[in-house]
Each structure stands twice: as structure tokens, then as C-alpha cells.
Amino acid sequence: MHWRALEALYASAPINRLFDSSLAVLGDGRARITFTIDERHFHAAGAAHGTIYFKMLDDAAFYAANTLVSDRFLLTTSFNLHFTRPVKSGKIIAEGRWISGRRRVLVAEANLVDEEGEEIGRGTGTFMRSHIPLSSLPGYRP
């Protein structure tokens, strides 16, 4: 039920109304976000802006980590991002995986692939438990 509640939390976030995306929790420490890129997401040179890469990678890693924490909302404390190649349009997938930590700080990584399965970006983040109970968030519905 925690996993479905995380999916509902993702869907309820106001920022996600701006994007054609969805979250699927795949298991303990694993999450996938699918996203469709079009010209609304382009920088001046006609490819997806780096903010799209960051959002997708951070969200996938964050939710992968938060699958292991059922009482508190996590906060991103740092995120390292590597751009592998540009993408112009189509469906992309961000796969997040928990790496280590379970108490106060968790580490998770994510990679981003295009429709052909080619990697377009990757990142690693650290996430810490906040003082915000998940149960207090209106979108979190177990």
C-alpha cells in the first residue's frame, strides 16, 4: 500500500501537472518514471533542457529511496548529474535504484534512456529523512 500511496503522491504534486509523466514503484528500492518530451521542453538549440534531465533523474532516485521509508518524506540534499547525450522528443524512462543507507541518509541512483534504449543521462543523489510525516501530505493515500 505504501508503494501505491507514493504513486498517488507523485501524481498529486502540482509540478507534475506541467509534464506528461507517471511513476511506477517496481519494488523495494526501485522506481520508474515515464515521460514524454516535446518542443515545450526545449532550450534555444532545439533539444530537451537540462532541467528535464534533473527532474526525471531526481524524482526516480527519490522515489526509489522513499520506498524504503514509510513514515517520513525524504528531501534531496545533493544530486550529481551527468548528461550523456541530447534528446529531442519522444518517450523517455528514468529508472531509480536505492544504493545504500536506511536510517537518516539514503543514497540512490537513476539513469535516463530514450525510446531506443540509449542512455541520455545518469545521476546519483543523497536523500535525508525530513520531519514531514508522509501521512500528513494530502496526496499520500495508503
Architecture overview:
By secondary structure, the chain is α+β, with helices and mostly antiparallel strands. The protein has a single domain (2-136), classed as Roll (Thiol Ester Dehydrase, Chain A). Helices cover 20% and strands 44% of the residues. It is built from 2 helices and 6 strands, in the order αββαββββ. The protein has helices spanning 2-12, 50-66, and strands spanning 21-27, 30-37, 72-83, 90-100, 105-113, 119-133. The chain has a 6-stranded antiparallel beta sheet. It is globular. The relative contact order is 0.23. The model has no long low-confidence stretch (mean pLDDT 96). It holds the Pfam family 4HBT. InterPro entries: HotDog_dom_sf, PAAI_dom, Thioestr_dom.
Quick overview:
The protein is of the alpha+beta class and 142 residues long. The protein is built from two helices and six strands; from the N terminus they run αββαββββ.
Summarize this structure as a short list of keywords or feature phrases:
single chain; 142 residues; Thiol Ester Dehydrase, Chain A; 20% helix; globular
Shape: globular
* Share of helix, binned: 10-25%
CATH class group: Alpha Beta
Structural class: alpha+beta
Order of helices and strands: HEEHEEEE
Question: Would you spell out the secondary-structure blueprint of this structure?
Answer:
Elements: H1 2-12, E1 21-27, E2 30-37, H2 50-66, E3 72-83, E4 90-100, E5 105-113, E6 119-133
Antiparallel strand pairs: 1-2, 2-4, 3-6, 4-5, 5-6
